[in-house]
Amino acid sequence: MLSATSVTAFFLLFLNFVVGDLDAGIIPKQWENLELHRTIDVSRSYSQELIDIRIKNIHNEPVRQYYFVLTEEVFDTISLFSSTLKGVDAYIESAIMPEQNFVANGQTIKVGVVSLPSPIEPGHETSLLLNLVYNSKYQPYPGHVDLGEEQKLLLRTNRFPISAYDTQKYTLEFQGSSSFEELQSLNGEETAETASNGKMVIGPFDSIMPYQDFSPIDVVFEHNSPLPRVSHLKRDIWVSHWASSLQFEEYYELINDAAPLKSGFSRADYMKGQLALKKGGHLTALEMILPDSSEAHYCTDLVGAVSTFKVLKDHFFLKPRFPLFGNWKYNFTVGWTNQLSQFLHSQEDGSDTYILSFPVLNGPSDTVYDNVSLSVYLPEGAEVMDVWCPLPVQKTEVTAERSYFDLNQGHTKVNIELKNLIDRIAASEAFVRYKVTSKALYKKPFSIAVSVFTALVAYFSLKHISLMIDS
Ligand SMILES: *[C@@H]1O[C@H](CO)[C@@H](O)[C@H](O)[C@H]1NC(C)=O
Ligand SMILES: *[C@@H]1O[C@H](CO)[C@@H](O)[C@H](O)[C@H]1NC(C)=O
């Protein structure tokens, strides 16, 4: 017989190597959720969910791993995930297994593991907080709006907890809007809830079995702000030792996911209604926070140079050529320069080794990003020793890139591909350690494996950010 710990270890190992779908039934039922409270905050263009669970070990041996379930929809757009013990201000080890699919009740799910700081004895309890940030893809409701009309959005999520364990008591709460309304379910069974005091609570519900019910809840809420989404960001950072500068250039493909206009855009109506001054789903200005003491700012779009931007200290305000209504797109480029010394540290051992640390994003506030391609161009012949990014990376690659002013093999380019980012991770820093020798040889491109979502990593970059809803 295997002991419980080796079963768990075996199970984890197993998870890493199985190809194809696994039956979620193999997750051991060692816990019971005594109380599970989900809070979904809709105040931003993405959803911030806090899951507060009191759990009890119902196994006959101490247990350390708690498995939690994510629906495919949440997993596909997840930006941040972390967990803490309730009342303890420190992240605990947890990870989502990105490659492994499970099937429960006919639905595909993803599973994550929270590894408690110490095992919990049989019959004992503890409380966990799980933080999830993801793009819920709110839909305008009922669809189009008139100029100046208030915007409502529809959020669809699972009504009941989807858990590997029995749940004794469950509530679901929405917050972050002045009004909420539950759309009546089609069979008209439940009475629809409404709320206008800034939050809506569904439940409590009792005795829910593992994976019992995947049925959705549709909630309509007021949201009188744009929903900026960058479908693609190309962020290039050029290191020049010679000029002692770090040059940034960013190309954005921006779309506003807010409600489209019912009857096209009329500039006359827009001016008449002073709508530019009113709050609504339209986007009139973008505000970005740049590194301190940036200079030589510029902005261009398809038409040419854009002059309607202002820089006030580290804030960059850009007014696009036209207000961006729902579904409207805007492609633009911004650039600026900083002193290299703000970002570069040389290793004090005479080894010609440098460490460059730079922010992962500087983009507009309250924004989601589908795809981000972050490139750092190092001096010609630089040899990359390490690349470290605190976020789940799709791909990291080091190549040599020739531009017309390079004489030899060209600049060394470090490319990091990321997806599902949000503005709040802008404070996270990535690092590149490299060596510049006079005769650095051409290095073959190499790739660094796809990383897993680890909260441990988030710990380094996110500890300065107030991560979530305060419960
Ligand atoms: C993001 O990148 C992936 C892979 O490169 C691509 O398949 C996908 O279509 C891109 N998404 C968007 C919105 O550009
Ligand atoms: C922005 O660029 C994308 C990709 O090149 C293109 O499909 C889209 O039409 C552009 N949008 C505008 C408004 O120029």
From TrEMBL:
Q: Subcellular location, in the record's words?
A: Endoplasmic reticulum membrane
GO biological process per UniProt: protein N-linked glycosylation via asparagine
The entry assigns this protein to a family as follows: Belongs to the OST1 family.
| Protein name (Swiss-Prot/TrEMBL) | Dolichyl-diphosphooligosaccharide--protein glycosyltransferase subunit 1
Q: In which pathway does it act?
A: Protein modification; protein glycosylation
GO CC entries = oligosaccharyltransferase complex
Give the membrane topology, semicolon-separated if more than one: Single-pass type I membrane protein
What does the function comment of this entry state?
A: Subunit of the oligosaccharyl transferase (OST) complex that catalyzes the initial transfer of a defined glycan (Glc(3)Man(9)GlcNAc(2) in eukaryotes) from the lipid carrier dolichol-pyrophosphate to an asparagine residue within an Asn-X-Ser/Thr consensus motif in nascent polypeptide chains, the first step in protein N-glycosylation. N-glycosylation occurs cotranslationally and the complex associates with the Sec61 complex at the channel-forming translocon complex that mediates protein translocation across the endoplasmic reticulum (ER). All subunits are required for a maximal enzyme activity.
Q: Which organism is it from?
A: Lachancea quebecensis
- Could you list this entry's UniProt keywords, alphabetically sorted: Endoplasmic reticulum, Membrane, Signal, Transmembrane, Transmembrane helix
Q: How does it assemble?
A: Component of the oligosaccharyltransferase (OST) complex.
Q: Which residues are the signal sequence here?
A: 1-20
